From TrEMBL:
Protein name: TIGR01244 family protein
Protein's GO biological process: sulfide oxidation, using sulfide:quinone oxidoreductase
InterPro entries linked to this entry: BLH_phosphatase-like (IPR005939), FAD/NAD-bd_sf (IPR036188), FAD/NAD-binding_dom (IPR023753), Prot-tyrosine_phosphatase-like (IPR029021), Sulphide_quinone_reductase (IPR015904)
Keyword set includes Flavoprotein: yes
Entry keyword set: FAD, Flavoprotein, Oxidoreductase, Quinone, Transit peptide
NCBIfam families: TIGR01244 family sulfur transferase
The organism of origin for this protein: Paraburkholderia aromaticivorans
CDD domains in the cross-refs: PTP-bact
Residue ranges occupied by any Beta-lactamase hydrolase-like protein phosphatase-like domain in the UniProt entry: 3-110
C-alpha cells in the first residue's frame, strides 16, 4: 500500500485490495471512502468486496465514486461531510489517490488558504495547482507540451510508443496512464486453468515503458481536440501536436444485479480480472459434481473467445479427473452463434459435443444471487418484450458487459455508442486529423484482441510520422485479429481473420491448420506468445506485423 498523509485525520492512497484490510485496521484507520467507480481497471475489486471485508475488520466504508477529472462541488461537499461525521482517521482511495486529494482540496476551499492546500498536496506527491481556477487562486495552472501524446499504457499504447521510437529515435513522446502495473491479459485464461502463474502476467509499468518516453502518471479527465489539449485530473493540461488514444475498455460489473456482492466467493468467478483467475482454477479443482455455468454478454467484448476458452479447459480438467460425467456444463451466450467466424465453428462443436456441453443462445446474465447459488438470465423476444429464466449453479464463470471508458464516451472523440470514432483502415479519427486511435477503445469492427493491437500499432506509428512529414505514404490496417481457442490442455484451434470474417492464417496449413485443433498452436500460445509480447511487441519489434502501405 502506498498511503499518503494529507492531514492528521485524512490519508489517501491508490486502489486497495481486500487483503489490505487487516493491515489498515492495524494502522488505525476507522473509515474508508472509495472515490473510484467500479470497473475502471483489470485488477480492481468492486466496492462491495472492499466494504464486506471492511465490515469484518470493524471499519466503516462509504462509496463516493467520481469519474476521473469530474469532481463536482456537490461531491466535494459530501466528501467534507464524511470527513466531519465519520470516525477517523480516514483513508480515501481511487486509482492513484488524485481524485481523493482533489475532493479534499475542494472541500477545504473556504476554510484555509489555497497555498496551504497545495503544499499539503505536494508533500503527499499530488499536484493540486490545476485547481487554481476553481478556487479563485492566482497560482498558474500546471501545463506541459509534447509532440506526441499517447493516452493509455496497455498493450496498444506501449507497442505504439516503441514502434514510433524504432522509426524515429529521439521523438518527444508522453504516455499518460495512472496505473503502476501492466498486465499480459491474454494469459489469464491460462491462469484460470492452472497453466500459468498469475505473477507471470504482471510487470511494473517502469519495466515495460520505453525509457525515452515521458510517463505522466495521471488519469485523463477530458479532451479538447480543438485546442490540441488533454486535461488531466486536478485540471492539469497537456498539449500535443499528435494525439494517440488507446484507453482500453471498461468492465461493467454493476450491470449484472448482485454480481459485485458475490464476485470471488460462492462459486462466482471470472478470468477477466487478475485477482479472480486463480479462483477460477481453485473452483475447477474443487468441483466434484453439480452444475457449472459459463456466460458471454452481448458484443463487443474483449477477446470474444475467452468465455468459452474457460469452459473448454475446465471441462478437459474434469474429464481427465474422471468427474465430467457428474458435472452438467452449460454455456449461456447472449449472442446467436458459438463463434463469429463460421469456419472455426465445426471444430469447436466437436468439443462441445465431446464434453456434453449444453448451448443456450440469446440468454444474457442479468442477475445473480451468490448465497442462493441462483443465476437469472434475460431473453429479448422479437416484439421487444423480455422474459426471465432462473437456474441453479455450483460454479459460474461470468463475463461482464463491456463498454467504452466513461471519459472517452463523454468526450468529443466518441461516436454515438461511446467508442472512439476512427477510420477502420487508417485508424485516424474521423473528425480530428491529428488524433489516432487503436486497441479495444475504437469502434473498428475487428475483434478486440492483443493480436489486433499488435497489427494496429505499426500502422498508427507510421501514419502519425507521415502526418508529421517524417514518413512517406499511408499505412493500412486490414482488421486482423487472432483468437487461440484453447479447446483442451495441449491443443488449440487457432482462429485468425480479417474484417468481414475472412480467414487469414499466418502459418501454412501443413504446419498449423487453424480450423483444426493443433498441438503446435498450443505451444505457440504457451511458450512463444508471452515472450513475443514482452520482448517483441512492447519493444517495437514488428515480427510478422510490418504495415502495408496504401497503393
Amino acid at each position: 500500500m502506498n498511503i499518503k498523509r494529507l492531514t492528521d485525520a485524512l490519508s489517501v492512497s491508490p486502489q486497495i485490495q481486500v487483503a489490505d484490510l487487516p493491515a489498515l485496521r492495524a494502522a488505525g484507520f476507522r473509515t474508508l471512502i472509495c472515490n473510484r467507480p467500479d470497473g475502471e481497471g483489470p485488477d480492481q475489486p468492486t466496492f462491495a468486496e472492499i466494504a464486506a471485508a471492511a465490515r469484518d475488520e470493524g471499519i466503516e466504508a462509504r462509496y463516493l465514486p467520481v469519474e476521473s477529472g469530474r469532481v463536482s462541488d456537490a461531491d466535494a461537499r459530501l466528501f467534507g461531510e464524511y470527513l466531519h461525521g465519520l470516525p477517523g482517521p480516514v483513508l480515501a482511495y481511487c486509482r492513484s489517490g488524485m481524485r481523493s486529494a482533489t475532493l479534499w482540496a475542494l472541500s477545504r476551499a473556504s476554510a484555509e488558504p489555497f497555498a496551504g492546500i497545495v503544499a499539503a498536496g505536494k508533500a503527499a506527491g499530488y499536484d493540486l495547482t490545476g485547481l487554481a481556477g476553481r478556487m479563485a487562486s492566482p497560482l498558474v495552472v500546471s501545463q506541459e507540451r509534447h509532440d506526441i501524446v499517447i493516452v493509455g499504457a496497455g498493450a496498444a499504447g506501449i507497442a505504439t510508443a516503441s514502434s514510433l521510437l524504432a522509426r524515429s529515435p529521439g521523438l518527444d513522446i508522453a504516455v499518460i496512464d495512472p496505473a503502476d502495473t501492466h498486465y499480459y491479459q491474454p494469459g489469464w485464461t491460462m491462469v484460470g486453468a492452472g497453466v500459468f502463474r498469475p505473477e507471470t502476467t504482471a510487470r511494473t509499468m517502469d519495466d515495460v515503458l520505453p525509457g525515452e518516453v515521458r510517463w505522466i502518471k495521471a488519469a485523463v479527465a477530458a479532451f479538447e481536440p480543438e485546442n490540441h489539449a488533454v486535461v488531466l485530473e486536478g485540471c492539469r493540461v497537456v498539449r500535443y501536436s499528435q494525439l494517440i488514444v488507446c484507453a482500453g475498455l471498461k468492465l461493467d460489473w454493476n450491470a449484472i444485479e448482485g454480481l459485485p456482492q458475490t464476485l470471488g466467493r460462492n462459486g462466482v468467478t471470472s478470468n477477466y480480472r487478475y485477482d479472480l483467475a486463480p479462483y477460477t482454477w481453485r473452483l475447477v479443482q474443487e468441483l466434484k459434481g453439480g452444475r457449472a455455468l459459463f456466460t458471454q454478454p452481448p458484443m463487443p467484448i474483449k477477446c470474444a473467445g475467452a468465455p468459452q476458452k474457460a469452459m473448454y479447459l475446465s471441462s478437459d480438467h474434469w474429464r481427465r479427473a474422471g468427474r465430467l460425467n457428474g458435472i452438467d456444463v452449460e454455456f449461456y451466450n447472449a449472442g446467436a452463434v458459438l463463434f463469429g467466424v463460421a469456419d472455426y465453428v465445426p471444430a469447436l462443436m466437436k468439443y462441445v459435443e465431446s464434453y456434453g456441453i449444453k448451448l443456450n443462445f440469446g440468454l444474457n446474465l442479468s442477475a445473480i444471487d451468490g448465497e442462493a447459488k441462483r443465476a437469472t438470465f434475460t431473453r429479448t423476444m422479437a416484439d421487444g418484450a423480455t422474459e426471465r429464466f432462473e437456474t441453479e449453479f455450483d460454479m459460474i464463470h461470468v463475463v461482464p458487459p463491456q463498454k467504452a471508458p466513461d471519459f472517452i464516451a463523454a468526450s468529443p472523440l466518441a461516436d454515438a455508442a461511446g467508442w472512439l470514432d476512427v477510420d477502420p483502415t487508417t485508424l485516424r479519427h474521423k473528425r480530428f486529423d491529428n488524433v489516432y486511435g487503436l486497441g479495444d477503445v475504437t469502434n473498428t469492427p475487428n475483434a478486440k484482441t492483443a493480436a489486433a493491437a499488435r497489427k494496429q500499432a505499426p500502422v498508427v506509428a507510421h501514419n502519425v510520422l507521415a502526418a508529421l512529414g517524417a514518413m512517406p505514404g499511408i499505412a493500412k490496417y486490414d482488421g486482423y485479429g487472432s483468437c487461440p481457442l484453447t479447446v483442451e490442455r495441449g491443443k488449440i484451434v487457432l482462429a485468425e481473420f480479417l474484417y468481414g470474417g475472412k480467414v487469414a492464417p499466418t502459418f501454412p496449413g501443413w504446419l498449423i491448420d487453424g480450423k483444426h485443433p493443433s498441438r503446435l498452436a498450443w505451444l505457440l500460445k504457451e511458450r512463444i506468445l508471452p515472450p513475443l509480447y514482452w520482448r517483441g511487441m512492447l519493444r517495437g519489434k514488428e515480427w510478422l506485423a510490418r504495415p502495408r502501405l496504401a497503393e
